[in-house]
Amino acid sequence: MLLLATFPLLLSVTVQSQPTEIEAFLLRLVAPALEREGVPGISVAVMQDGELLLARGFGWADERLGLPVQPATAFPIGSLGRSLVGAAALREVERGALRLDAPIGKLLPDVPERLQPITLQQLLDGSSGLPASSALFEALTERAPAQRLTRKAFLELLAELPAQDAPGASFAPDSSAWLVLPLLIDEVGKRSFADCLAQELCGPLGLRDTRVRGELECALGHAADCREVLAGRALEICTGFEPRAASAHILSTARDLVRWQTALFQNAALSAPSTRLLTESARSRSGEVLGMNASFELGELGGQPSWRHVGGIAGWRGALGWYEGARLSVCVLANCSSARVGPIEEEIARFLLRLPPRELQDLPLEPGESALLSGGYQLGTLRVRIFEREGKLWYESAAEEAFRLRSQGFRRFVSSSGEALLVFSGESPRAQSFAETRKGATSVARRMD
User: Which of 43, 281, 295, 426 could potentially form a cystine with 333 if both were Cys, beta carbons 3.0 to 4.6 Å apart?
Assistant: First the structure.
């Protein structure tokens, strides 16, 4: 049986859920991934209003060496680092070392003619027309790992790949721009991208575990064939990227990423114009809002705006979400390409935001749970009765027909239609209240009997 190693870092919680409840929820949520899906290790962090609520590791960073995932375990974050790379470039703009309208042909030596007209602004806003980073990575992996890649060779390889569009013509959600930006910083900023990242962002914002991995030639734990860890086989990755081509490859932790995202969206990292450039939606040629930009997919959850990104590199996966109304940031990292990090991140957000889970359950009641929750409650001017029928809880009021409640665990119940979420308080011996959420609005019912 796969050992479920866990290492918590729990601080004071400002959301209404209790720390032990959040901890138990996470254990239940990630256990199937570790025990049945073969994911070696998962790291989770949650921050709300600038306060770290939770940072926790599950499973193994390297089972062969007996290294568990801990809050300080750093993962290669791949495209989750786009906003960090963009912010580093914008810090150079803010201090006058770079200009948004400057074409890279005037900034970098050895730039092939085809790439010369692309501006820094286009690299940042996703309109550079450069090939997708996935296409670039595929081309890079065809090279022998021992073959060195200079900056000139890297740019020539990039220019040989089919462009997605002409510079400035259209937005593309995935491009190689975030791999070119560090080269500009190295050349024009008069300091390395690694130093810029450390001095401008990581140091001031307290990102203690975030750093540039200049060379990814050595093994870094588990990778794409993660299910084989169940057979006791150690799994490794070897990318073959060299320093110049790999300078945008960042290592970070889930707790650093939620701290970074909070700083970005609360305007603690950049000026307001720079922040808008990284967070506002891109637009089509006709001006239509596309609901995405170079770093995030924009949407909503429970009626509040959200910014999310799910990505990875070389067998590593990560999901990062920001929920504006609650000022909530959630990050999930995994050392397995098939890990369902996106759904896990969303379920954590739904749990904390008191929204019905996307994957509804119908769990049996815990022993004695019916007696603790059943009774009469006052919900505003409405009298509500919670009662048991045939081993299930039901909800009855004068405003609607009685309906069955489906248990989600942790004293959380969803109506049969999925429209209402009830979260009962944890007092003993009986719950004295429950919070009812419908269509994003929450009301509290108090026990009357």
Answer: 43
* pLDDT tens column, 369-380: 999 999 999 999
Pair 323, 213 in one domain: yes
Q: Which of the two residues, 312 and 415, has the higher pLDDT score?
A: 415
Q: What is the pLDDT of residue 329?
A: 97
Which stretches of 33-182 are assigned E, i.e. beta strand?
41-48, 51-62, 67-68, 75-76
Name the least confident of 62-76, 327-341, 354-368. Answer: 62-76
Structural domain of residue 165, as residue ranges? Answer: 97-188
- What 3-state DSSP class applies to 124? helix
pLDDT in tens, 432-445: 999 998 877 889 99
Write out the two tokens for 278: 């990284």
User: Where does a domain end: 146, 168, 188?
Assistant: 188
Q: What angle do CA 436, 437, 438 make, to 5 degrees?
A: 125
84: nearest Cα among 363, 408, 405, 320: 320
In angstroms, the Cα distances linking 315 to 13, 139, 195 are 33, 17, 27
Examine the domain organization and report whether 183 and 200 are in the same domain: no
